Known about the structure:
By secondary structure, the protein is α+β, with helices and mostly antiparallel strands. Helix 1 packs antiparallel against helix 2 (46-66). 36% of the residues lie in helices and 24% in strands. It has four helices and seven strands; from the N terminus they run βααβββββαβα. The longest helix is centred in the middle third of the chain and has 21 residues, at 46-66.
Amino acid sequence: xxxxxxxxxxxxxxxxxxxxxxxxxxxxxxxxxxxxxxxxxxxxxxxxxxxxxxxxxxxxxxxxxxxxxxxxxxxxxxxxxxxxxxxxxxxxxxxxxxxxxxxxxxxxxxxxxxxxxxxxxxxxxxxxxxxxxxxxxxxxxxxxxxxxxxxxxxxxxxxxxxxx
Length: 164
């Protein structure tokens, strides 16, 4: 990476859209439509109405997660912002480390940005209470595309200094 100025580079999470949740939603929708057409009186049952509501909420949640883009990392000349956390200026980073941490019974690789001593930030709930992950950790275990992971690592190495 050259020493060019970054205006603002946004990296998004990449989720596989064709998954078990989609198949479950399709199966539930097809079942409800089939029985609604075959026996319309079922639409007046409270249980069927609850299932319709659950199906709608499930589709909305699936759409929110898999159709909308979610920012993972925002990088610019001044600093880096991970998820919806506070921006960490490049000058406040003491060092960066690549770590393997445990998450959901598997090892996950993260790129950790360690702030200098004596600098305090207002952390959000997840930053305060997330076990092995430090407050400023970038996931490098398949939530981003491999190209984005490599580019983020290069930018962080260039802007924040050496990795440990």
